[in-house]
Amino acid sequence: MRILAIETSCDETAIALLDISGPLDKPNIKVLVNTLLSQIELHQKYGGVYPNLAKREHQKNLPILLAQTLEEANENSDNPNIDYIAVTNGPGLEPALWTGITFATDLGKKWDKPVVPVNHMAGHIFSTLYDTSGSFLNLPALALLVSGGHTELVVIKDFGNYKIIGETLDDAVGEAFDKVARMLGLPYPGGPQISRLAETARGKREALFRFPRPMIHSKDLNFSFSGLKTAVLYKLKLDNKNDDEYKEDIARAFEDAAVEVLIDKTRRAILELGDETKTLIVAGGVSANFHLSQELEKLVSEFPNINLRLPSRSLTTDNAIMIGIASFVKVMKKPETFKDKTQIKAQGNLSISSSGQ
Ligand code: KG4
Ligand code: ZN
Q: Is the pTM of this model over 0.70?
């Protein structure tokens, strides 16, 4: 199946051309072309992503990336050899999502190809199918999704069957990383910056501070990160310090708290699900976090029957490859659905459990 995949849900414009075949639990994924233009520098000035600015950039970037993709693949721009066009239709920033959808739908008409709407979080989940070790993705799986907009625990009983069993009640964990970084005067996106400072502190000395672990003792599987962020803010105001070592200690204490909550709730979910979970998938931008991945290794060592699956480093943050892979899963599950050209709508709050993936 040859797929042209398009991602514009946030601040990355991305187009990829993929050729995917084989079984869902171990597909053979060939990335023919992968293109991406990041808007990070543009949004850095504002400390976050502005939807209308993102929209304008996507509109500018999409034709450039398409031309580059078709040229690299030696494909005719009037009639390329593809079977499907895949596009993210949510969740994300609606003005940004619409640019991708309009672009994809116009191409679908021009080339007479079906357009498959893809849930961005399903994209993150199935980014882990791109696996060079050649192992099977065994289901049922539990997914911990950690990105700039989401913190969710999702049970994947089967391909196409997703249920959210826990989620954040306020800020997403990536958002908390970004906000704490901003308080420390670090550039957007804050996750990699915090991670770097925290690792420096760990390499030098014992932990100096301890922040609260919000909701760690609640009986449910939900998260809250807004209180942790506020605790950091109060601490900074109280201490009124600005030297490098102080910032490293704050970053470390924040990361320790955020990661401990993620690990604890994931353990609780595994225990609640009983013996059935075969794979723990962790995906989304924050899955690139070094401390989190180390703690995850320790967590799965408590459960010998569970395999840990993280995306390869280049697929942790937003990209079009993961959208193409998720569309493959969707089309394989419901091949008939995409024959008729139904209208695709951007859905900013699209949920993984209701998206009919
Ligand atoms: O999945 P993603 O690229 O975009 C969304 O769908 O939101 O995730 C972006 C988020 C940002 O909040 C960024 O700060 C965070 O992922 N992130 C990290 C790291 N790398 C990216 N957070 C913690 N540690 C990292 N190494
Ligand atoms: Zn994402």
A: yes
